[in-house]
């Protein structure tokens, strides 16, 4: 690189003469510069600025108190089911919105007040504390060991086995108290997740019309969703039951059905499978007429309904459970029992 036009007097030199005539090395950029000189803040030299900061901190703490009082007032004032419009969030729960807003303001004001207090009024002089070894001297360590052995001998821990063993038993059983408290998390599931609302004789009800299904209602290539007879959406337990019993019905030409058991459990090519994906339990709703494939919209697990609903793509662990169906004396489609395996995610592994 050319240095034309640059005065050599202004270029840094590797060696410079000190005031005493000694030669000093050029400044090393990696040398620890030490603590910078302390620079006072405006609050340190101007009492009026300090008073302003004090009022700011007090104002933030007062705002936090008012927000906390507002939190309590909102909890009492707003009913759980009250919905209000708040721009830009849209229609939201008045209780949830007000509680979140007031609690957020209360916590933010406390934090902002504490930070402002520390940065403007508390001492900002940095103090260096020299490090020193913290380990004990050999004499102290030896004395501590002797004291421990003497205490163990005097306690009788080694020779009083009854006390020692019962103490170990007490310490081992105490954690069981916490395990028992887990029982309050809810009722035991028992076998509820392995059974559904379906049973022999229940008619298949069209979820769109709430009418029983006849074979002629299901055309080739169509996808119909059904639920068990007697499952009312106004029932308290409806959501839990429909989450397991939701059914999808497809009619396939019997000659196109490859799985023998699927054909036996169908009626004139009408097959009924669980609507719940065996990956993480998403509802399946996409059907390809030409291939007889159904696709889960969540993670793209794909099942072949013409071949026992086996998995042909995606993360699902096993095929969709099939419901055996027939026709009752009045000509309506009915279930001939429950699913022969648990519906839903693969982690059950049928165990």
From TrEMBL:
Main location: membrane
CDD domains to which the protein is assigned, alphabetical: Rieske
Amino acid composition bias (Basic and acidic residues), ranges on this chain: 17-30
Protein location: Cell membrane
InterPro entries in alphabetical order: QcrA_N (IPR045603), Rieske_2Fe-2S (IPR017941), Rieske_2Fe-2S_sf (IPR036922), Rieske_Fe-S_prot (IPR014349)
Keywords: 2Fe-2S, Cell membrane, Disulfide bond, Electron transport, Iron, Iron-sulfur, Membrane, Metal-binding, Oxidoreductase, Respiratory chain, Transmembrane, Transmembrane helix, Transport
Any Pfam family matching the protein: QcrA_N
Coiled coil: none
Biased composition (Polar residues): 1-16
Alphabetical list of Gene3D superfamilies matching this protein: Rieske [2Fe-2S] iron-sulphur domain
Signal peptide boundaries: none
Region annotated Disordered, chain positions: 1-38
Membrane topology: Multi-pass membrane protein
Domain (Rieske): residue spans on this chain: 239-334
TM regions (residue ranges): 57-78, 98-118, 162-182
Similarity comment: family membership: Belongs to the Rieske iron-sulfur protein family.
Known role: Iron-sulfur subunit of the cytochrome bc1 complex, an essential component of the respiratory electron transport chain required for ATP synthesis. The bc1 complex catalyzes the oxidation of menaquinol and the reduction of cytochrome c in the respiratory chain. The bc1 complex operates through a Q-cycle mechanism that couples electron transfer to generation of the proton gradient that drives ATP synthesis.
Protein's name in the database: Cytochrome bc1 complex Rieske iron-sulfur subunit
Originating organism: Streptomyces camponoticapitis
